[in-house]
Amino acid sequence: MSNVRCYVKPLVIVFVLAQAAVAQALAVPPTDLCPNVADILDTTSFPLDSPPALVQGQATVDFTIRVDGSVVDPVVNDVTDTAFSAPALALVARLSCKPQITSVRARLPISFRRPATLTPYLCRNYAAVMHSVAYPKEAALQGIEKGEVIMEFTLSPTGGISNLRALRFSHEVFAVEALLAMQRLECSGTGKQVQVRVPFAFRLE
User: Where are the strands (E) in 80-160, listed by range?
Assistant: First the structure.
């Protein structure tokens, strides 16, 4: 009987240590495991087709970091609205993590807030910039009579623009024109970081 106890006890200890290792990995701040997590969270995009009543929310994603640093097996384990599940998983897929001694399970909470609408209060020349947007000549030559783009960017507390990107566009030529327009904006900071979303509608006249 003593031989049986000799083999069982180490197994129990190993099992307990494994549980403790998982708990510790989940408690480790993501910045310690994935250096680009802050940059990734700065590009969090609110779901495009969400209902107007939905203004904010949160999703928590668990994922595994392998020995080579690759991220696999992401799972949304808590979410305030299912609309946030897909964008949360998309963010985790872009993480660049450090190699690990052994595979670890990590957890990343992600907050979502509906972007602000661009106004002269945020960017003083907003009206002039939007008025100056021309219909792309290339689109006209291709016989395209209308198009749309949804742009988004991060406005820093001091008024700097970063993470400028087209979230959706009907044709690439319209995205290029909208991007050029956004680069002409002159903005002022509000004292806090703000996500701003700008829709464009093009029509050949």
Answer: 104-113, 116-117, 146-155
User: Over the stretch 102-119, which tens digit does the pLDDT of each residue have?
Assistant: 999 999 999 999 999 999
Looking at residue 117, its amino acid is T
Among the candidates 82, 113, 144, a domain finishes at 113
Integer angstrom CA distances of residue 91 from 72, 108, 112, 182: 13, 10, 12, 24
Give the chain's end-to-end CA distance (angstroms, integer). Answer: 92
pTM score: 0.74
- Cβ pair 85, 79 in contact under 8 A: yes
What distance in Å separates the CA atoms of residue 68 and residue 116, rounded to the nearest whole number? 39
CATH code of the domain containing 164 = 3.30.2420.10
Q: At 135, give phi and psi (nearest 5°).
A: -70, 130
Q: Which domain holds residue 40?
A: 28-113
Amino acid 56 reads Q
Whether 10 is in a domain gets the answer no
Note whether 121 and 49 are same-domain residues: no
| Phi then psi dihedrals of residue 169, to 5 deg | -155, 145
Q: Which residues pair with 194 in a beta bridge?
A: 155
